[in-house]
Specification:
single chain; alpha+beta; SH3 type barrels; Fumarylacetoacetate hydrolase, domain 2; 2 domains; eight-stranded mixed β-sheet; 26 strands; metal-binding
Length: about 425
């Protein structure tokens, strides 16, 4: 266990190498304010700066906000200078963080917020395994050609992006019934294991940005659960696409792990590292990009708080398209992207060959990023450790996702995104 001014547990997702950014409040101060996570503690950045943590004045001004949007618009070297200043202070026994009462708070004493003001949310679909499996269940034998030519996506609901820990109520919707369509609670409620990409510097309207420069517009990454009501979704899909079936809630982990932290952890890869597979080998110059990201992710389910079962694992690098290609394609029409916009990577599912990247710690079954794949649309129930069968999410179920990046002594994490399913509200 590393000491510093307070113990940092071995295996913590938030070692000194990480320094993610988030927004929190406490019981004695209800104002949402920026902080960072180190071990099992949260550092109040405003208090640290007020007490002498050396930072650029533009950082001080940006952190006066109740969101991270102003901070994210700063130049990357200025943003990263705050990470470095915090890291240096933690290593220096004469620094501000070694004094008493200087804004160091136990993590279980804070309430986390959605860290940025989100003007737009876009959800991609970039896993070949996910597209193939879902397509077979829908009766399609071939993957559409456009999947191989561009990162497919749709515009979602920014209004229903919520922070980890907030419960999710089972949604109502229009679904087919024996006597015709009816308005009723979803009976096929599902999760989707994804990563979220937050935009930093805006992409101006009318100025498409190629994938080779997209990294300049990425602030960082979070875990993302794109809750999906499959019965509502499948009934409304044709001819226009998903709407209410995907609108109920999108849960995200509260700490944004920066691109710079991922690079220092060795989680930023080049397409050469990956053998130029999939869309990363595109011949379209606008989408061509050398950068990719590796993040190991997993989903577990707790039923009635008694057991916890691993449902699936995957890796961000297994996607057909990289996050930077997603940013570029989104901008390709000239629509522009604003600071705080959130892009979901789409469901992270791995093929039987890809899951072998986990070595001996892999499972040929537990490699899907959603229940629809794991249980084949409800036709193949999954047996939980208590002997019960899982088909779709039940009231009282808690879904938790985790993410890790790096290797050896450079492992960093994203913490968790977790939510409990509550029964549908009653309507007259």
């Amino acid at each position: 266990m590393v000491q510093y001014p307070f113990p940092i547990p071995d295996g913590s997702p938030f070692p000194i190498l990480n320094i993610p950014f988030g927004v929190f409040h406490t019981v004695d101060n209800s104002d949402p304010r920026p902080g960072t996570a180190v071990g099992d503690h949260v550092l109040d950045l405003r208090i640290l700066i007020q007490n002498g943590l050396p930072v650029d004045e533009s950082v001080n001004e940006a952190l006066a906000s109740s969101t991270l949007n102003d901070f994210a618009t700063l130049a990357v070297d200025v943003r990263n200078s705050l990470r470095k200043s915090i890291q240096e202070a933690l290593r220096d026994e004469s620094s501000i963080v070694y004094r008493e009462d200087v804004g160091i708070i136990a993590a279980d004493q804070v309430t986390m917020h959605v860290p940025m003001k989100i003007g737009g949310f876009t959800d991609f679909m970039c896993s070949l395994e996910h597209v193939q499996t879902m397509g077979r269940m829908a009766g399609y034998n071939e993957v559409p050609q456009n999947f191989f030519d561009l990162p497919a996506a749709y515009n979602g609901r920014a209004s229903s992006v919520i922070a980890s820990g907030q419960n999710v109520t089972r949604p109502h919707g229009i679904i087919p019934g024996p006597n015709g369509a009816t308005y009723a609670p979803s009976q096929k409620f599902d999760f989707e294991l994804e990563m979220g990409v937050f935009i930093s510097n805006p992409i101006k309207y009318g100025e498409p940005t190629p994938a080779s420069r997209a990294r300049d517009h990425v602030f960082g990454f979070v875990l993302l659960n794109d809750w999906s009501a499959r019965d509502i979704q499948f009934y409304e899909m044709a001819p226009l696409g998903p709407f209410n079936g995907k609108a109920t809630a999108t849960s995200i982990s509260p700490w944004i792990v920066t691109v710079e932290a991922l690079e220092e952890a060795g989680a930023l890869l080049t397409t050469e590292d990956l053998g130029l597979r999939g869309g990363k080998n595109t011949t379209i110059p606008f989408l061509r990009c050398q950068d990719d990201v590796a993040v190991r992710v997993s989903t577990s389910l707790s039923r009635n708080g008694v057991t916890e079962d691993l449902l699936g694992k995957s890796d961000l690098k297994h996607l057909h398209w990289s996050p930077f290609q997603m940013v570029a394609h989104h901008s390709s029409s000239g629509c522009g992207l604003d600071t705080g916009d959130l892009l979901g990577t789409g469901t992270l599912s791995s093929s039987a060959d890809q899951i072998k990247d986990f070595g001996s710690d892999h499972d040929a079954i537990r490699r899907s990023g959603c229940l629809a794949e794991l249980v084949l649309g409800g036709t193949r129930p999954f047996t939980l450790s208590d002997g019960s069968e899982l088909v779709w999410l039940e009231d009282g179920d808690t879904v938790t996702m985790e993410g890790w990046a790096g290797a050896g002594d450079r492992v960093i994490g994203f913490g968790k995104v977790s939510a409990k399913i509550l029964p549908a509200n009653e309507f007259p």
